[in-house]
Specification:
heterodimer, A: about 525 residues, alpha+beta, 14-stranded mixed beta sheet, five-stranded antiparallel beta sheet, 7 helices, B: about 170 residues, mainly alpha, 9 helices
């Protein structure tokens, strides 16, 4: 073939495979692709495309050779003397065996250390790589983002402690805390490996979160797949939407979480959002100050304030009326509940509902269970356990006997209470390595309780700080959010609207901010999915 | 086969599987999707895999089918007919069976990149490593989009010719 024909073929191949060709050129490409030699050139071009990212990355580390004064001619002369990869070729098979045994070897130093995106005390300056063998801790007050030269990123939760292993390769150890990772596809001979005290995650090129304490690890994969390996050598391939846990006792896949879609930030300077549906519209009660709350529409636009009506409301829609129950606080706890009822959200009738004669309470939540009304009170007592009030007419509430309670001996802080198909569902706050997370328990009789096998059912992430499309907040409103711990998850408000479960949850400190999520099915389905039948 | 064996096999042949999928899809992101789906299918079906069947054929077949499915779903079209895809797949499988190491090609590629000017190499880095759009590269380099696109085409052609001229790389 003439050189000009070859050049024409190559141009045609590049234009077509890069998506730049005209229909006529594509037609010519199809005609030429009957020729095996043309197909081979296509294949070579494509193989180069698959190798280019790695070659370019490696070429970054070789740039100093040129900048040190070596001409291209000298490089051409020098190269046959020593080719870094070809020298290692005989060792590749051995390296893969070592890899399988858990020992790490890489041929590409220099591309395996991340840099800080924003400066933080105790870390190398932004733009400078971390040092191997060093242990670093993220600040207590904010998360920290690291970027690798290949574009992979790690977002460390506040206070997370991590070390970059002294052996070569992208290998690091999560000592305590949590991280979110977005990992670019890695070369076959250099996987990305994260270790914890009890497990190892070998990353293929994907997005996931990994959290670890002294004796446990939890992995959640959002895209792609991660090979999770226990110290005892057990392995699990964890795919998208799956999770796995490892501790000193067990190593197992966690049941698939319901597919809750995070939508983003919807309210700033707000400590709680309580959604409800009335006359086919979604409304929100927003707690923006220690006393009082605001009634808002679905977009968060104010309809009216309840400045003196009590604080931290819960809501019940029943028989064409909206009932807002709120608490009157004295110091750091409440002793009294009030109720405001309306048939049109304009005229409200308020009255006292209940007065506590004992230690008082903090949060509360009301639900209708069959033909009676039940209120859950978060007792102002150590660990904030739950007790219950009942009423047959919504007029007079009386405390239920002491055996009707949830007092598990650890921090509980119940704050949302629902009834569905003969079961009470209670949302409470449980531990998360980087803060607090949402847990769920249920009971048929308010005496014996069952925790969801999928606990924690909801955890905050840095994604919750992204503004939901269509909402607008100025820099003054957003500034405190960037300073807050985004991993605390303290309150949840939930309702069903037009067949979809709408979830509003609080993150950050006080007042913090509200983010929204949705589950694309009815509320009952959501609750039942968290207690799967064996 | 264990999950680890499947993953190791997949990673060993990832470059060729990527080439197969990208020939069909001509889109980096869709190709990555196709490979992820291929891996998951390999893992899900590993217990029903008949060990008497060649593993490479099985993996390439899955990759091709996944890529063609994505072509349909995303309303794209493949430039190759069934017969051409069969030839391409067989060449890739033969290379893999003969143990032809992509590292030799990678080595040649690195060498040819080192011959480029730092500016041109930076352009290649932006386009093929950082996956920046032509518009973004145009903005950062001060060249027009047409100029960037033409230059990248020239550089790819130059790179291809350079690789072919390396010892042992002639087709």
């Amino acid at each position: 073939m003439k050189a000009e024909d070859e050049a024409d073929d190559l141009t045609l191949i590049i234009r077509c495979l890069e998506g730049l060709a005209s229909p006529e050129e594509e037609e010519e490409f199809r005609r030429r692709s009957q020729d095996p030699a043309f197909l081979k050139t296509c294949l070579d071009y494509q193989l180069d495309a698959s190798l280019l990212p790695r070659a370019l990355l490696a070429s970054q580390t070789t740039i100093p050779r040129e900048s040190s004064g070596l001409s291209a001619r000298r490089l051409r002369v020098r190269r046959p003397v020593r080719s870094r990869s070809s020298l290692w070729l005989p060792l590749l098979a051995a390296a893969s065996v070592l890899l399988a045994a858990g020992v790490w070897l890489t041929l590409r130093p220099g591309s395996d250390l991340p840099q800080l995106v924003e400066a933080a005390p105790g870390w190398p300056a932004a733009g400078r790589s971390v040092a191997k063998g060093q242990t670093y801790q993220a600040p207590d007050s904010r998360s920290l983002k690291l970027r690798y030269p290949d574009g992979s990123t790690l977002t460390l939760a506040p206070s997370t402690c991590i070390s970059f292993e002294s052996r070569q390769g992208k290998r690091l150890r999560l000592l305590e805390g949590g991280l979110e990772a977005q990992i670019q596809p890695q070369a076959g001979d250099s996987p990305f490996i994260l270790e914890t005290g009890v497990a190892r995650a070998q990353v293929i090129g994907t997005a996931f979160t990994l959290q670890a304490g002294a004796n446990w690890s939890e992995l959640k994969v959002s895209h792609g797949a991660v090979l999770f390996r226990s110290l005892g050598g057990k392995e699990l391939m964890v795919g998208a939407g799956e999770a796995a846990i490892a501790d000193t006792q067990e190593f197992r896949r966690r049941q698939e979480q319901p597919k809750v879609e995070k939508l983003g930030l919807v309210a700033t300077s707000t400590s709680k959002a309580v959604p409800f549906v009335f006359k086919d519209r979604l409304y929100l009660l927003l707690c923006k100050s220690p006393a009082g709350y605001t009634l808002a529409d679905e977009q968060g636009r104010k309809i009216r304030d309840f400045p003196q009506g009590g604080a931290i409301p819960s809501v019940l829609v029943d028989n064409g009326l909206v009932h807002i129950v709120s608490s009157l606080w004295e110091g750091d706890k409440a002793h009294q509940l009030r109720i405001a009822s309306s048939a049109d959200l304009v005229d409200w009738k308020e009255r006292n509902l209940y007065r506590s004669l004992d230690e008082g309470f903090c949060h509360h939540s009301i639900t209708k269970a069959g033909d009676r009304y039940v209120i859950c009170l978060e007792r102002a007592a150590p660990n904030f356990p739950a007790r219950f009030l009942a009423s047959s007419d919504l007029e007079t509430f009386t405390p239920m006997p002491a055996e009707f309670q949830l007092s598990p001996g650890h921090y509980l802080a119940p704050h949302n209470f629902l009834w569905h198909k003969g079961c009470y569902y209670l949302f409470w706050i449980g531990p998360s390595p980087a803060g607090a997370a949402q847990y769920l328990s249920r009971s048929a009789d308010l005496k014996s309780w069952q925790g969801s096998p999928k606990n924690p059912i909801l955890q905050s992430s840095t994604l919750d700080r992204l503004i939901r499309p269509g909402r607008h907040f100025d820099s003054r409103q957003m500034e405190p959010i960037s300073q807050q711990n985004p991993f605390d998850n303290n309150e949840i408000g939930i309702c069903e609207f037009r067949g979809v479960t709408r979830i509003f949850f609080h993150s950050g400190g006080n007042p913090g901010f509200i983010s929204e999520a949705r589950y694309d099915a009815r509320l009952g389905d959501f609750l039942e999915s968290l207690f799967p039948k064996p | 086969m264990t999950e680890a064996e499947i993953v190791n096999f997949f990673m060993a042949h990832r470059d060729r599987l990527w080439a197969m999928a990208n020939l069909i899809l001509r889109d980096h992101h869709l190709t990555e999707d196709a490979l992820q789906e291929t891996l998951l299918t390999l893992l899900q079906k590993r217990e029903s895999y008949d060990p008497t069947r060649p593993l490479l054929h099985w993996a390439f077949g899955i990759t091709r089918n996944k890529a063609l499915k994505i072509v349909d779903k995303s309303h794209r079209y493949c430039l190759f007919g069934e017969e051409q895809l069969h030839i391409l797949q067989n060449v890739l499988i033969s290379d893999a069976q003969e143990g032809a190491s992509p590292d030799r090609r990678l080595d040649a590629l690195q060498h040819c990149l080192s011959l480029m000017s730092p500016e041109n190499r930076q352009l290649m880095l932006q386009k093929y490593q950082q996956r920046a759009s032509i518009r973004k590269i145009s903005g950062s380099s001060g060249r027009s989009e047409v100029a960037v696109s033409s230059l990248l085409q020239r550089l790819r052609a130059q790179l291809h010719r350079c690789i072919r001229n390396q010892p042992g790389m002639a087709t």
